[in-house]
Amino acid sequence: MSIRSPFILRRIITISLLLLFVLIVVMLAGVSMGSTKIGLKMLLQSLLGEKMADTMLDTIVWQIRFPRVLLAGLVGATLSLGGLVFQAILRNPLAEPYILGISGGSAIGAIIGILSGLSRFPGVSLTAFAGSLATLFLLLIMSSGKSLLKKNTLLLSGVMVNAFCSAIIMFLVSMTYDARLHNIIFWLMGDLSMCDINQVGILALMLLPCFIILFCYSHSMNIILMGNEMAQTMGINIRRVTAVLLIVTSFMVSATVCYCGLLGFVGLVIPHLLRLVFGSDHRILVPASILGGGSYMIICDLLARVLPQQGEVPVGVVTAMVGAPLFIYLLKRSKQ
Amino acid sequence: MKKAVEIENLSFSYSDNDILKNTCLSVYEREFFIIIGPNGSGKTTLLKVIAGILKSRKGRLKIFGRSFKKYTRKSLAKTIALVPQMGMVDFPFTVSELVLMGRFPHLNMLGFEQKKDMEIASKAMALTDIKHLEHRTMDQLSGGERQRVFIARAICQEPRIILLDEPTASLDIAHQVKLMDLMEKLKEEIGFTVIMVSHDVNLAAMYATRLLLLNSGMIEGVGKPRDILNCEMLEKIYKCKLLVDKNPFGDLPRITPLPLKFI
Amino acid sequence: MKKRCLILVVPVLICFFITQAQSNERCVTDQAGRIVSLPDKPERIVSLAPNITEIIFALARGHLLKGVTTFSDFPVEAKKIYKVGSYVKLDLERIVSLNPDLCIAVKDGNPKDVVDRLESLGIPVYAVDPKSLDGLMQTIFEVGELLNAGDRAETLIHNMRLRIQRIKFLVAKAESTPRVFWQIGISPIISAGSNTFINELITLAGGKNIACGTSRYPRFSREQVLSLAPDVFIITSMEKGVVFDELKADWGLWPEMPAVRNNRIFLVDSNLFDRPSPRILDGLELLVELIHPELFKEKH
Fold first, then answer.
1. A36 contacts in chain C (CB < 8 Å)
2. What CATH number is given for A18-335 in this structure?
3. How distant, in Å, are the alpha carbons of B202, B255, B261 from that of B258?
């Protein structure tokens, strides 16, 4: 009697198609809802090529909402996938994409950029990126050689680097008292509203190769979870695989942070949420994180824009307030 | 008989102190080769060197006549499989997912299994009698069942040598014997070489084709159980009073450590 | 020869004037050095800061405003206008949905990226940057030009200058220059230093801003404030939820400070001082009363 579970490829395709459908629905909702009323019918007509009667609505949909929804999708995908990969490399369910000092380093870089009076793009993005690369470099030097593979060394070094960076950030914030303080706070809280379609396009170009590379390594991630020694005996070059995963994921997360600041919670919880639903196989979890994480962020961004009467709630608040209860509920259900 | 593993003048040290000193040994094909010795004698280190996890700078290691260095990582994985002492699983994989992981060295780059892989895994689970557990997660299994899962995974690698690191350490006496019987059965049916590290001298005596006695990184003796297991040798190595008599079954030595009140 | 040139020049001139008359756009340079192309008669304006709102209403052009920021609360009519977010966090979609033909921004406050995006979407944005009373009057003049309210702007500026002159004459009669400490932040204690409006106002009102130094918003420890011995202590209401009596009682624990001894600790509405608008002169006049009450006793 052969094993009942269907072949892995079939499962991947089924789950991916399901989540892709969810993603498309959510994107349509995201683009059609906002502070200005635009009906779904008008939106679909616009999609099919007809120019909207009111060019202003056209601008709102395609120049303001669509880039934002696209950015939310990319950010959600990257952070979820980043959390998934770090949880695998570090073999720790509490790992999240910022754990290796990326949040601390990029925040310091961004604050220095804002205080110098640079504009968001490209100025502050570049300083943020430089900051995260610097901390990563620092981290790799601190835990170089054999200890790189000891799982706790990397993790603890990352936590220490982040703590140190937090102190510097608090100091910088306390020294600022003009309009730049607002810019800094908004950057630290995470902000999806600042990009136009060209900038989002550049981000997509940077992220798509990363997604593909990480998918190719998804079965290796399954094996790494068995422990470094076991993975070696099963044929994995543990140094090379860890290095590739680390570099690609760090690059991906750093690039994303430059565009949207520090959006928390998504990278920690979405992988666990997906594991509860789809199991632990990373060949399924990698595409699921991309599509599911992206959908989740788009929904949260939509709620952030639409729920309050005036202005908008920071997206990071919505991701936590929606995600935590959802996660607890699913956890309780899975235990039964 | 062909030599599965051949070690010449191998030394290994973590930092300053040598764990293994000038070790020389040969393991023949289809042997049930058991390494015994007191704690800290370097048994697990020796096993890890053979598995390729630890690399020694001095000495030579040959697998099936070929130098260890000439094997690629994947080809080594198809030749040698390791069953760990305590499998660490932090994430909830199911039994069938874990067993299928053993097919990794045989899969394509993306790691998608074919029908053939599924059949091999199915057969491995049948051989180790865990088929009924295939949809459970590891935390729902007992120690003995978990061991069998790792053995099934090792079988999926289709190795010619299986290494086991103190597999009976946390099992009760019934499961200890069951596991050793299983390894013997698999060895006969599939035809691989078994190299095991054990702390249980009696169990080793009952199953081993040949035994290796290791003490402080040096080989005290290699050979058949009834040749190696004599009182003076064991007392010198284990540094305690022992009673060595004959097991009524199979004409094999039986070792009993003596408490103080009986000396 | 001359006649031929004239024959060529005249048609060219005529064409030039015709095109100018037909075009309803003009190009101006704003206070941030940007060249802005905007319509001659803007009819749908969005103000991106509360002080701009006040200036526009003061120029009697409030009816052209279609969108203002959240804290645009003066005059009362401004409260009813559609809100487009706060001046540090502008809502792009709301602004665009109003279909404005001109936005007026403040350089120190509005995020540059939003301004750039509005420009890229074809909405002209004129940035102002009033840093002093003179700068404020220049701003009022420029906004007047933008909104075809040049006459009103002139009148307003003239009145403002008169008021300032009157205050200068009055203050010149004062015999002393009291030391003034202006408290903006509660914890930590932050004051307004050099290159701020407040510094200029305190000086005009005949006081000495003891926080004047190298930075714009210096921080002080309690000891430093005490050692500076201010004669007049002014606290602004910018921090929400501040209970003035508690603060006053807090400082009251240090009777060595001249301001405490003579009971000269005051609370003022920050909107009169932090917004570069015509109302800032109301603030100035209030300051003179607080710093030099003796000048007013003379009057009565």
1. 93-94, 97
2. 1.10.3470.10
3. 14, 10, 8
